[in-house]
Amino acid sequence: MWSESLTFDEIVHMQEGVNALTKHTFLIDTNNPPLIRELAMLPAVLGLGTIVPPRAVTVFFGALTLIAVYLFTKRYFGRTQAVFALFLLALEPTFLANSHYVTLDTGVTLFVFLAYMAFVRLMERYSAGRLIVAGTLWGAAFASKMTAVPFLVISTVIAGLSLYKNAFRKIYTNIFRVVLCICLTGFVIWAAYFFTSDVLIVSREDAARVSSRLEAYAKAHDNRMVEGLVRLAQTTKLPLGNYSAVIKNTLIRPQRQPHIFFWGHFYPSARWYFMVTTCLIKVPVPLLALFILGFCASKRRKRTALFAIPVFVMAAVSCAVNIQPWVRYLLPLIPFVVIVASESIYLLKGSAGKIIFIVLCLWFAYGTGMSFPHYISYANEFAGPVRLRYRVVMDSNLDWGQSLPDFERYIQTIRPGFVSFSYFGRDNGDTYGLVSDFAYGSHRFEDICAFHHINLPYASTKIIVAISVSNWYYCGYYTDPKFSGRPIKDVVGGSILIF
């Protein structure tokens, strides 16, 4: 939490969280609901601090996830598996990477897990208390991030139909209770928006927007009904209008994705194996092995399936849509992965089995420890040498702007007289001694790609050029002859290339 600079997305979430809490506006990020960033920024609004306290809220979400995984694993599998699942989750690099940033991924992971387990408990035995808990947690999950909607809905439908007898009949005979639960879910979502009402489509001059194109089409073909519906959506404020707009934007966004990055190249659209392959290099090999063992050899098939279903559903959903293959999108499946993997603890019997088990655990812990403090840049052995991982991954899989403290220490060590630095991030480099000739923090693409010229007080004629890995690709420097043909002398923090 203290060892990394602000990531690129944290600035947006912090600004939007403060605006939501103080002004009840939701204008910056219109692709996700606001609950997690509101909770994260509450300490800042109360005057407790603007960076560490909000990050501490995310750490708290991570701690609650650990506790929840332990308790539910203990309930369904026993104390020994619960301790092992706790060990696996506490040292899982992607979970560690995202459980201290002011972003949405850890919060939605917590609420998706709790909401799914609340559904399981409700299916096992109905009670009014369990219904209220389920509706509240589903609302919290849906108000955290839009990925929670397909993840939860599809997982619970498949789990309900495959693991519980007469699931449809239970739903039909309890339709009033189901409607009550849905209403409670909607109430919690609306509460995250402070019960404000808004339009479904914000009126804005932009010919490229789907609504603008639809309105132009309606006018050209004299379709007054479509034209009227668009105008109605632009002028009529509705309860949950903001959330409805987020759903609309989520459905439209994959069709407007920029080129998809995969394994050092850009593609016009995602392919199903992009996310799978990325997970295979970002999840520790020992954890993958333990998950496969736990899933294939478990003697408690129904209970194991209960936790395996969300894993396969989330993976399938992420592979089916046109999104960047950032592994953090699949963070909600990690708690389920470690629970299934915990079943492997009794399968490796005998001297050979115990040795294999110990080797896998040590391998797992060693790989995580060697990534400290930048768990976000972790990749397993399939990704190749650490210094060359920039050829495979970038952005939130490697370089999210988190390495300014490392770059500061690197500068103090080599003591150059001048630095030219293209930084992928919006944190203020001035606070790290990297005083630039123009301000940090811009969201404009050309400013992010531009080089900060940094004069240093060292009596040296040495000049270095530094480029963040994400800028190396996004800004096209990897194809620029001025840089692509020059040797890379060092890689700082796993994410800043030194020439």
Backbone structural class: alpha+beta
- Overall geometry: globular
Which value, in Å, is the CA radius of gyration? 24 Å
**Which quaternary structure do these chains form?**
single chain
Q: Output the strand order for the largest sheet.
A: 6-5-7-9-8
- Portion of residues in beta strands equals 5-15%
Could you tell me the number of beta strands? 9
Q: Report the end-to-end length measured between terminal Cα atoms.
A: 29 Å
| Global mean pLDDT | 92
- Poorly predicted runs are none
Walkthrough of the structure:
The protein has 499 residues and is α+β, with helices and mostly antiparallel strands. It has 3 domains: 8-194 and 259-346, no CATH class; 197-256, no CATH class; 390-498, no CATH class. It is built from 22 helices and 9 strands. Strands 6-5-7-9-8 form a 5-stranded mixed sheet. The model has no long low-confidence stretch (mean pLDDT 92).
